[in-house]
Design brief:
With 75 residues, the protein is an all-alpha fold. The protein is 35% helix and 0% strand. The N and C termini lie far apart (34 Å).
Length: 75
């Protein structure tokens, strides 16, 4: 963990993701796999939002939500 943290500290702050070196299980680990997977995707901001699906090439539909705002992980 020390080597990992030193490596992260040596990187330019604008390029890496503020990863914390912690050695424990994340919240929700006792949930069913499908629930934990959905929560983890939300936590790391790679869930199946319309914006992400379009960015990854899985959809050609517009990335707008039904309310008209762009559907991102924050929305």
């Amino acid at each position: 963990m020390k080597m990992w943290q030193e490596r992260l500290d040596s990187l330019d702050a604008s390029v890496h993701m503020n990863i914390r070196t912690e050695e424990h299980l994340l919240a929700g680990v006792k949930n069913a796999w499908i629930t934990w997977k959905a929560l983890n995707r939300l936590r790391i901001k790679v869930g199946r939002s319309r914006a992400n699906m379009l960015k990854w090439g899985y959809s050609n539909d517009p990335d707008n939500c039904d309310c008209g705002t762009r559907q991102t992980m924050q929305h």
